[in-house]
Protein 1
Amino acid sequence: MPHLDEIGRNVVRLRKAQGLTQEQVAFHSNISISRLQDIEYGCKNTTIDTLIRLARALQVDSRIMGVFSMTDRDILSKIQGSFRLKHCINGPLQICENIVQLRKTEKLTQKELAQRSNVSIVRLRDIEHRCANVTTDKLFNIADAFGMSLVELSAMSMSEAEIFHLIHRSQNHSGDGGSYRCKTIFLRYTIFCTAWA
């Protein structure tokens, strides 16, 4: 699954950029070395809880691990400087709230969103009520159903107007260019909010 591969590559790049061993990251994130290796190789799905623990160990916001291709050390340093650890603490809570708000803005029932995202309605209800430890593949499916990336879905807060604007932009820009512009706008918005929080 390409999303898992991307998360794995980003974890490796973040770990190596900070000169950390797998043993150190596994210890500080309270997961086994074999689990970390599975994540780095993109072999296993992982939960948001595990991503947050990895982000804490790597001292970055959990949202950057699954949505950026990080190959340039300077870009990586800027991202690490902009997104501070304290802003990822309520990540899952915000994602759940955003899913509910987006669904209501698009006037979708839980059943319709479940069908559109290929997530069971029981699982979607659990996610919306914050009862489930959400796996990344489910979040990617839900984000895809809304036509957005995981970073857009996990934005720190979205007013109804911002959500409508984001949906409107993603629907009116076809191809990669529109998607890129939409992501860039939202990334700038998120960094701005983070910088002033």
Protein 2
Amino acid sequence: MELYQQFLLTEDILKNIINDAKQNIQATFKEITAALGGIETHVDDDVLSEDIEKQYVLHN
């Protein structure tokens, strides 16, 4: 039983780490967006929209 409880605790810790990383990535995309002059991006279902790529192609 103790091993199972340790597993659950480890699982919770890993989920928290992953969620923190996702939030950091989303914040970074927002900062990049602001730096690029307000290009809109959307993070839906963990997939970044193609807005940045389209803007990059338009400017290069």
